[in-house]
Amino acid sequence: MIRSLFPSAADWNRCWANFRRLLARPESAQDGRCLGCGGSVGGTIRDSLASDRLPNASSGSAMPGLCADCYAAIPWIAHVACRICGRATSCPDCLRNATRYFLCSRSAVQYTPLMKDWLRMYKFRGHEKMAPLFGHMLMHGYRLLAAEMRKRRVIPAAVTFVPASAERARERGFNQSEQLARYLGRATGIPVLPLLIRVRHGGRQSTKSRRDRLKDLRGAFEKLPGANMPAFPDRRPPAIILVDDVYTTGSTVNECARILREQLGAAVFGLTWAR
């Protein structure tokens, strides 16, 4: 076994993560292949994803890096039904959650089986070359959130992200929420600040019930030592955009928002790729 050549599990995990990153570089992707289905698209993936053009859910133009069929299948959230979590349909989670530490959240797409497949390719199968595509898609959710923030006359002071546990970071070699946040920061000019740390690893949240999520996440996050909020000109609490990949019940966003609000005095707005 190749793994037996490494003196420790940590050395193996580090080497494996580096190898996956090498395979997943955009330069290693075949030009002209769709990131969603592997079919043919016009132009090169790398050049199209590097463009400044943002996705428009109402336009007929293809998403960079995707074929026309995959673009047409994206379940964009065009209409927000729940003003709290941004869901496109009615939301029982928000109705029964009495204690909420974030002001509202918005997402780019509905979490359909197709979107679950794309996320698995990116998050669990080492296809890190999909990161720019996910960031590009996230910008639709940001536009929805920015519209809501303008209504509240709020200007974002910084962007932060849900941290991964040390175990998950070693396993994947990257934190998808951080990659999304940094894409957003580059696209908008809003500073990206690591403000949180995950101190307890509780396994995959996607496999747990709402009750188990709430129990498991309590105390899982802390303020990153030395983390501080940027100076802001007025006396209102500084507004922070908290980025994650998927909003399911809101448990993760809410627990992170609790830390940001209680320990840093921030007004927290959630932004996720899918809902």
Descriptive report:
The strands form two sheets. Strands 1-6-5-2 form a four-stranded parallel sheet. A two-stranded antiparallel ribbon has the order 3-4. Helix 10 links the parallel strand 5 and strand 6. Helix 6 crosses helix 8. The longest helix is centred in the middle third of the chain and has 21 residues. About 11% of the residues have low confidence. It has one domain: Rossmann fold (3-Layer(aba) Sandwich), CATH 3.40.50. By secondary structure, it is of the alpha/beta class. It is built from ten helices and six strands, in the order H-H-H-H-E-H-H-E-H-H-E-H-E-E-H-E.
List the helices and strands and how they pair.
Layout: H1 9-24, H2 45-49, H3 68-72, H4 92-96, E1 102-109, H5 113-123, H6 131-151, E2 156-161, H7 166-172, H8 176-188, E3 196-198, H9 210-217, E4 221-223, E5 239-246, H10 251-264, E6 267-274
